[in-house]
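ugh ok so i messed up the first submission bc i forgot one of the chains. this is the corrected input, ALL of the components this time, i swear. 610 residues overall. if the numbers dont match what u have on ur side tell me asap before i send this to the collaborators (the ones from the other lab, u know who)
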Amino acid sequence: MEVVWALGQVGAVWVAVVLGLIVLPSALGISLGISEAYMWVLVKTLEWATIRLQKGAKKPQPQMPRTPTANGIIERDETPMEKEIALLHGADFEFSHIFYFCRKGFEAIVEDEVTQRFSSEELLSWNLLTRTNVNFHYISLRLTVVWVIGVIVRYCFLLPLRVTLAAIGITSMIVGTTAVGQLPNSSVKNYLSEVVHLTCSRILVRALSGTIHYHNKENRPRKGGICVANHTSPIDAIILTNDGCYAMVGQVHGGLMGIIQRATVKACPHVWFERSEIKDRHLVTKRLREHVADKSKLPILIFPEGTCINNTSVMMFKKGSFEIGGTIYPVAIKYDPQFGDAFWNSSKYNIVSYLLRIMTSWAIVCNVWYLPPMVRKEDEDAVQFANRVRSAIAHQGGLTELPWDGGLKRAKVKDTFKEEQQKNYSKMLVRNGSVG
Amino acid sequence: SVSHSQITRLYSRFTSLDKGENGTLSREDFQRIPELAINPLGDRIINAFFPEGSDQVNFRGFMRTLAHFRPIEDNEKSKDQNGPEPLNSRSNKLHFAFRLYDLDKDDKISRDELLQVLRMMVGVNISDEQLGSIADRTIQEADQDGDSAISFAEFVKVLEKVDVEQKMSIRFLH
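and heres the new structure output, hopefully the right one now
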């Protein structure tokens, strides 16, 4: 009996601390500096660990460039097919032509540009999380001790704290938006809806120990516009709603997500599609167009890649979002992988294990750049416009651009690409009339 | 020979391709690589990994096939004069390419086989007649003993001026 009472007391103190130190400041939009202090300690610890690792390494590590993925692990000869084969004594067919395709094939087998984007980025230096321990071995007792302390801190202190916050955040979102949803449509309702959404976002960001740096806030998406960003994880949306209000676009889910969707749509005009509706592209475009045309509605948030990529590159943008019209506000999001891997590898982890991994990482640190608004030019079609926006985002975020479709995570590549290669080669063979 | 870090990297690559997580790769595992799937000779290349009659390749076999593409200068470091010829010697690299053409493994490239490989490379863009002429001319130029097929020796002769070492090598950056 006394044990229960004691536990109750502890629980009450716990909740009071959480409410007072985290929830209340979130509602008021102020910061007590606790996260900053935590981050400072964390950065110092990781710097120390990196130095220890470098000292302890048996062989001197070659100076690795800051972005190893840019160069990859093998030398790639990017000479185009025409030049390389033409170098082989003219454009008549030769047995040696096979070397070109052969080498390209083997290069792709050792390392290809696409499949590596669907798994987490490799770190330059170990960040004291077991999950990122690829090549790092036992170095010293001190390092191991720090690692053990890290495990205890993360699993026994941070995880319960974060789970509590997440629970509070989600519950207040549902309760708050349902309450606001009861009001008749008016500017008061809109204002209150924004307050609720912002507060809950802030609580959720704190639940992930998120440190977000927003750049160029003057370019923040305005009403009646479309906000477009690169996609790494489901928490991208929370990262963005932490700093502004958006109308979400997405498919209706079941379960907890569905409850949240149904509650929030009463307070704020989010655009949720039924599974059957999503297949009809014209319907989707029409509804979004109507939303965008209404200048009093919040900007819609879209992730044109259609799937989560590992934040080292931006893959093909689906043209649908760029056919709606209106002003596009591009946003680049770049996570710092040293503190925690935000990428959701949906073929490897389901959403619950993903959230658990996020909540047992050190922190989520990211940079968000708001880019100047873009409109489709008259001589541009949707695909060219999409590529232009994608370049801007990739350039700002320091990500590489890939013309491949993110859908290749699950689907096979289309035959048309192979046919294109065959066509290019054929053109070379027949060009000089060298046909026998 | 291959450095420790290179082996680690390749093993890491092998396991990331092994979706079934059973220590071997199947043809489907290779076809999941988009850049390989769009390669006109992708199927022939994938086939090179699988020994006769087998549908699975383990890490050992994977490395063995990849070893053909090690740069020849690597051999300078391990001067083993009495050992078997290394897989990445010029001769073995040429043999590897020869086997890409020699579909039925009878140590000769027949007109038919050459036509089939050419068809893979050009797709539907060249007519049968044109392709036939190309095959005829190519065989005629290389055929020395007049049997209308190309043996390995004739193959080597045709390519004697080509820098095979450079074209059939993959260099690691570290």
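quick check: Chain B touches chain A through 57 residues (CB under 8 Å). that seems consistent at least. Chain B has two domains: 4-68, 90-165.
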